[in-house]
Write a structure and sequence with these properties.
The chain is an alpha+beta fold. It contains five helices and three strands, in the order H-H-E-H-H-E-E-H. It has one domain: Winged helix-like DNA-binding domain superfamily/Winged helix DNA-binding domain (Arc Repressor Mutant, subunit A), CATH 1.10.10. Helix 1 packs antiparallel against helix 4. The chain is elongated and about 60 Å long.
Length: about 100
């Protein structure tokens, strides 16, 4: 689980990648659509997508000349569970303090 968390939080450390995830939360999108609002070269943007794919949060499929990306929710659910577990520890610690 530690490797998955490290990969997820590393991917989320960049604002471009967070923006891509925010857009994909609305539904699948082509690489060109995802790239459009970002002022960077396509190869640079593709490296961001690779980081997201390597972390498991994004999956892409190529049909013809179009590559479409979509959000993968399982890693998000795992991170949410870890965060909930951490919160329970913190809240329990605070409740037991004099």
């Amino acid at each position: 689980m530690t490797d998955k968390l490290d990969s997820f939080f590393g991917a989320m450390a960049d604002p471009t990648r967070r923006a891509v995830l925010q857009r994909l939360a609305a539904g699948p999108a082509s690489v060109s659509e995802l790239h459009k609002p970002h002022k960077m070269a396509l190869p640079t943007f593709m490296r961001h997508l690779k980081v997201l794919e390597d972390s498991g949060v994004v999956r892409s499929v190529k049909k013809g000349r179009v590559r479409t990306c979509q959000l993968e929710t399982e890693p998000l659910i795992e991170v949410q569970g870890w965060l909930a577990w951490q919160r329970a520890i913190w809240e329990n610690r605070d409740a037991n303090q004099p």
